[in-house]
Amino acid sequence: MAMASFARRKAYLLGRNFANSSPDALRYSFSLTNFSRGFASSGSEENDVVIVGGGPGGYVAAIKAAQLGLKTTCIEKRGTLGGTCLNVGCIPSKALLHSSHMFHEAQHSFANHGVKFASVEVDLPAMMNQKNKAVANLTRGIEGLFKKNKVTYVKGYGKLISPSEVSVDTIEGGETVVKGKNIIIATGSDVKSLPGITIDEKKIVSSTGALALTEIPKKLVVIGAGYIGLEMGSVWGRLGSEVTVVEFGPDIVPSMDGEVRKHFQRSLEKQKMKFILKTKVVGVDASGDGVKLTLEPASGGDQTILEADVVLVSAGRNPFTSGLGLDKLGVETDKVGRILVNEKFATNVPGVFAIGDVIPGPMLAHKAEEDGVACVEFIAGKHGHVDYDKVPGVVYTHPEVASVGKTEEQVKELGIEYRVGKFPFMANSRAKAIDDAEGIVKIIADKETDKILGVHIMAPNAGEMIHEAAIALTYDASSEDIARVCHAHPTMSEALKEAAMATHDKPIHI
Questions:
Q1: How high is the pLDDT of residue 334?
Q2: Active-site residue, from 108, 385, 467, 489
Q3: What is the 3-state secondary structure (H, E, C) of 249-278?
Q4: CA terminus-to-terminus distance, the chain
Q5: What is the pTM of this model?
Q6: How many CB atoms within 10 Å of residue 136?
Q7: Is 113 noted as a catalytic residue in this protein?
Q8: Fewest CB within 10 angstroms: 1, 98, 424, 475, which?
Q9: What tens digit of pLDDT does each residue of 195-205 get?
């Protein structure tokens, strides 16, 4: 089985670049890559591609388009590239997660490793400065990539005035029109507000404000138990805040595999994070020094008051499409405002495309990047593809939780007969050696074929480990395939191998 599987994948790899391209498309692709051009201008000169939005989807699409020989302009209203992710999302939050974890380890773990000191304290301004420095370096790095690939960068708010023209109110105060044969909307998403709650980014904050607090709140209430809320709750909890998470639904991170979710919630509770589930916020009073929240059971009932110094509203995100002129062009959207596209990311208006958070699919930076690459490949006459069933998701707490593919609940709902293999990190030698052994690997495979359907990992470095599983799913690997791959010892990744062994046969070390 293993040899046949290898031969099949080798044939696939050899043929994948050209199997889906017509001779005309290939000739067009060749001519584009040999097309001599200079910088695109924002005046009357027409671009091949104009991208509205410089976040992960937009800037990656711009660079890829330029690499394919397309004359490209990217428009970004923020004035710095990278979008929400780099400026006020993924990157600064991971910087604070790492810094706060270091502080927490110094307080609670260093002594076990023979590292002792009299006291340890938080220098919050220095921590924020490190975060800001990382963001600044990365945004400048993207601008450097734009220059290297000859992408024109226009700073300002873009609005479509026709299927081939974008009017830009520049951040300097002027106005210009950028013309393009193809326009890609990559404007991302914005914080979802809740009725009756006004975000002032001081006492009632979004994730943006939570990344820039000047003091460590004594009591922090997080509204919403999703990825962002739990990550930011972890940051401030490690630094000393008393964190309470209020969630309308019955579970934290509802998209997560149910069994892994239970392990995860217990882990966070051990870190003193409190959860109030099946509860809604029906009133907010921020008139005093702090904030008073009026809570009520989701199904109705007696009200209670919860007090906080700071409240983080983390109830999800909405696609950012307001003010783009889509309604005047007749671009179709769904009931929640997402732009509807076909398999080539084209809207119903010829020449107008959309990618990332503004279209259906996971609202993740890496998904947006894949959208951007695939979209411009289609525009260039090539073949692009993104499989949303195989996009990894990661919660960057400690331990991290990462997953790819289907949960056990989803497999049951589909009526597929399956097997489950699990392996705890308590039985992993590397995890025990470094005294960080909380977590589990869970693999779900088709009972008849052994094809892997989903992988779920809770571990200190789950976000790195999950990619072996993502590759396995992409190439329709079986659990036996992973089990028969030699994994270096001692590594955390051996737990994935052992879970694979447990799925199709039996593990060795438990």
A1: 94
A2: 489
A3: CCCCCCCCCHHHHHHHHHHHHHCCCEEECC
A4: 26
A5: 0.90
A6: 12
A7: no
A8: 1
A9: 989 999 999 99
